Structures are given as structure tokens and as C-alpha cells.
Automatic annotation (TrEMBL):
InterPro entries: 4-hydroxybenzoyl-CoA_TE, HotDog_dom_sf. One of its GO terms (molecular function) is fatty acyl-CoA hydrolase activity. This is Acyl-CoA thioester hydrolase. It holds the Pfam family 4HBT_2. Keywords: Hydrolase. SUPFAM superfamilies: Thioesterase/thiol ester dehydrase-isomerase.
Length: 158
């Protein structure tokens, strides 16, 4: 399983002196992008194909506080992918310096064409980069319906 180690920086701490919510999100995003970059899915490829990732949601579950002074590790496992790789889902687990799991994050996203600003699937050779990701035990093939499972819809102000 892919992991990324982080030093908890001063600006990663909140007013309660533990790891801030924004740091969990940043560590997860950095772990995802590090994995993709290390496997050839880098900025050059994104620019050539004129595509970008978009996050639909991130849910974080906190189990225990963690404080500055010791490194933490964030894992990455693929929990879902649509057949055309338009939609993807990852789970990140956060571990303290002793290997204890102190939080978990589930996220789902997709790929957009940066010109048309619409969701797109990936070309087969790019999609195959996801084959290098550790698949979770509960991995599933995603459909458009999976992206709507929480049934959230925008509500504009009157």
C-alpha cells in the first residue's frame, strides 16, 4: 500500500494545538497527487491532455488527536473506479509514528476537460495508471449513481 510521510508543521496545528482539519485534507490531497505523479500522471500529462481532477466530497472520520513533534503517515487505497475512469474514489488512513490509526478519509472525484469544463473519461493508457494503486477489499466499479448516493442538491438563496 502506498504511504506518504509528513512532518506536522506549525501551520498544520489549530487553536487546540492538535492537527487542524485543513491539514487532514491537504495531506490526503498531497498523498493522492504524489502517488499519481510517481506513476507518470504528472502536471505535464495533465497539461497535454487538458484535464484536471475535481473532488466531489471528502469525509473525514477522527479517532484520536495527534500533535506536532512526530511524523505521521497517510496511506492511499483505491476504493472505486468507473470503467472509463471518469469517476474515482480513494480511502486514506492516517497513522501516528507508532503505526496507530488516528483518522480516516473517504473521497470521490472525477476528471474534467479544462476547456469544456465537463466530466470526461480517461484514455485507456492513462486509465491503466490506476492499476498500480492498491485496491481496497471493498473496491467497486463506480457508476454515475454512486456520485449521487448522498442525494445532496444545491439550494440557492431566494
Amino acid at each position: 500500500m502506498y504511504t506518504k510521510e509528513f512532518e506536522i508543521r506549525w501551520n498544520d496545528i489549530d487553536a487546540n494545538r492538535h492537527l487542524a482539519n485543513q491539514a487532514y485534507i491537504a495531506y490526503a490531497a498531497h498523498t493522492r497527487m504524489s502517488f499519481l505523479i510517481e506513476h507518470g500522471f504528472n502536471q505535464q500529462l495533465l497539461q497535454e491532455k487538458n484535464i484536471g481532477p475535481v473532488v466531489f466530497y471528502e469525509h473525514i472520520y477522527y479517532f484520536k488527536e495527534v500533535f506536532a513533534g512526530k511524523p505521521v503517515k497517510v496511506s492511499l487505497e483505491l476504493t472505486g473506479l468507473s470503467d472509463d475512469a471518469k469517476f474515482f474514489a480513494f480511502r486514506h488512513n492516517y497513522y501516528d509514528h507508532k503505526g496507530r490509526n488516528f483518522a480516516s478519509c473517504e473521497m470521490m472525484g472525477g476528471w474534467i476537460d479544462l476547456k469544456s469544463r465537463t466530466l470526461i473519461g480517461l484514455e485507456p493508457e492513462i486509465r491503466s495508471l490506476f492499476d498500480m494503486a492498491h485496491k481496497a477489499e471493498d473496491f467497486k466499479e463506480l457508476t454515475k449513481e454512486d456520485t449521487r448516493k448522498f442525494n445532496k442538491k444545491p439550494k440557492d438563496l431566494n
